[in-house]
Design brief:
With 198 residues, the chain is mainly beta. The protein has two domains: 3-68 and 184-197, Beta Barrel (Thrombin, subunit H), CATH 2.40.10; 84-183, Thrombin, subunit H, CATH 2.40.10.10. It has helices spanning 112-118, 185-197, and strands at 14-17, 30-39, 53-57, 84-89, 103-110, 127-131, 147-151, 157-165, 176-180. The mean pLDDT is 87. InterPro entries: Peptidase_S1_PA, Peptidase_S1_PA_chymotrypsin, Peptidase_S1A, Trypsin_dom, TRYPSIN_SER. It comes from Anas zonorhyncha (Eastern spot-billed duck). Keywords: Disulfide bond, Hydrolase, Protease, Serine protease. Residues 1-193 form the Peptidase S1 domain.
C-alpha cells in the first residue's frame, strides 16, 4: 500500500501475476481486477506508518510455473540483521526512469537502531530497513508496494517487508524503509480469515 492508493478507485487497479516485461503477451501472465481495497485504519500518510493495504481480487489466482505464493511470516518470526533478502519491482533504474522489465536486487536487513538514527527517529516498530549503508542498491520510485522477500527454513520464501519509503534511491546511509509484515500479521490474518469465511 502506498499514498497513491488513497486517491485511486479500485476499478482503476489491475493485478498482474507472472509478468516480467511490460506489454508481455504470454499464457503465463494472469490479470485480475480489484474488487476491494482494505487500507489499514491507522495509516498515517505524514510518516508512512501502518503503510499497508490488502487487495481483494475479483477472481482467484491459479498457481503456475511463474505464479507462486509467498509465505506470510507470523509475529514471532525474526529476520536477523544482515539477513539476505530480495526486492523486485518496476521502478526507476538509473539511467532508465521507466524500465520495460522488472528487476531483482539483493539487499540485507539493516539494524533497526542504526536505521532509526540515520532517519532521525522516524522508524517505528512497524517499519524495517534494508539495503546497503554504502548505497548503490535500493528500491526506487515506482516500486512502492513491492515485496521484500527473505528465505527461511526449508528454503521457503517469506514476505518480510513491503516497499514503503526512503530518501532518494540507493544513497549512502539512506537505506530503503519497508512496512514490517510481522508487526501487522494479526491485522492481515484477521482480514484474510474474514474474506475466506464469506
Amino acid at each position: 500500500m502506498h499514498k497513491v492508493i488513497l486517491w485511486l478507485k479500485q476499478a482503476w487497479w489491475r493485478a498482474y501475476m507472472g509478468l516480467h516485461t511490460i506489454n508481455e503477451k504470454s499464457n503465463h501472465v494472469a490479470m485480475r481486477s480489484i474488487k476491494r481495497i482494505i487500507v489499514h485504519p491507522q495509516y498515517d500518510q505524514s510518516i508512512s506508518d501502518y503503510d499497508i493495504a490488502l487487495l481483494e481480487m475479483e477472481m482467484p489466482v491459479f498457481f503456475s510455473e511463474l505464479v507462486q505464493p509467498i509465505c506470510l511470516p507470523s509475529t514471532s518470526r525474526v529476520f536477523l540483521y544482515g539477513t539476505v533478502c530480495y526486492i523486485t519491482g518496476w521502478g526507476a533504474q538509473f539511467p532508465h526512469p521507466n524500465p520495460s522489465a522488472s528487476f531483482l536486487t539483493r539487499v540485507r536487513i539493516i539494524n533497526q537502531s542504526i536505521c532509526n538514527k540515520l532517519y532521525d527517529d522516524l522508524i517505528t516498530s512497524r517499519m524495517l530497513c534494508a539495503g546497503n549503508l554504502n548505497g548503490g542498491i535500493d528500491a526506487c520510485q515506482g516500486d512502492s508496494g513491492g515485496p521484500l522477500a527473505c528465505t527461511g527454513k526449508g528454503n521457503r520464501w517469506y514476505l518480510a517487508g513491503i516497499v514503503s519509503w526512503g530518501e532518494g534511491c540507493a544513497r549512502r546511509n539512506r537505506p530503503g524503509v519497508y512496512t514490517k509484515v510481522t508487526a501487522l500479521y494479526d491485522w492481515i490474518h484477521a482480514h484474510v480469515s474474514l474474506l475466506l469465511s464469506v
